[in-house]
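Subject: Sanity check before I submit

Could someone independently write out the structure tokens for this chain? I want to compare against mine line by line before I put it in a report. The sequence has 360 residues.
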Amino acid sequence: MARRLWRAVVEGITPYDPGKPLETLMAELGLGELVRLSANESPLGPSPRVVEAIRREAERAHLYPDGGSFALREALAGHLGVSPAQVVVGNGADELIGLVALAAFDPGDEVVVPVPSFEPYVTSVTLAGARLVASPLAGYEVDLDDVRRRVSARTKAVILCSPHNPATTIIRRAALLALLEAFGEDPPLIVLDEAYCDFCDDPDYPNGIELLAAHPRLLVLRTFSKIAALAGLRVGYAVGGLETIDRLNRVRAPYNINRLGQAAALAAVSDAEHRERTRRLVLEERAFMSRELAKRGLTFPASQANFLLVKIPNAGAVRERLLRAGLLVRDGAAVGFPDHLRISLGTREANQRLLRVLDA
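---
Independent answer below. Compare away.
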């Protein structure tokens, strides 16, 4: 009998498809420019302080980075009002999700995840051999009543996303508090992914980090990819109780954040002005695009993120027309919403170009 090398569970995993590189697509389509509005990247780019920090740090690329991201954790802790021991830094939030699975999920455990949602949640559960317990969205909203009904004695974790990717909606304060309090003194781990929190302007949006003192099994994920425009450097962080962060550090690879990523993120923490400028641009363009798309009879949930999920007839054909016009958007079918397009908010020029293609 032939030797079996690979775990059977891996056969059921579909590799993440990031799409072709922009340069390849441009060459294939004969385009001189292609604006990517498919990956929820910052339209403004990183802070000049960040660019300068990367330039300075490049000369030390031959040295191993700080294995514990000490300076970055100190800066984040001061910014967030927590202890540095409550912060762990990851190679993007994706790595942190994987660390949770590595540290906590045993075969047979149950993990409740609203679906559809960010793909790595399901992948991490599957690879750990745990059982995914799917909680369907109620339209575009996370149904916390349904989530709560699906939690059992076998539930190891609940993974939530607010603002939700790809639905753009939020979990409101009263509903989240009711869920946390309903679990009593022995709750499962509650992973709350707040990657898009910086673009939220709804006063009913709860700040997960402010809830940690009363709920030590809450783990909040955030990222430098969106508000700080460091998507290309892969830096995310988790804030939680001391026990949780200790366990994540036990399974975290040494030197998991490279020198350039740490230097860039540290510079980004100190540049509040650039964060506010990015936030203001996104909120202005979100309001502009929401008005303009609504004028055209298109429907979408009210977004609290830096992208819109737009229901649109013949979405696949529209996406192809946009691509040939030099605008790349995400097919909603690929993220669980057929007949939708997920459109990142770009500059005013890019957004107006997109509207012109839709009008044509």
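---
OP: Matches mine. For the report I'm noting this point. The mean pLDDT is 96.
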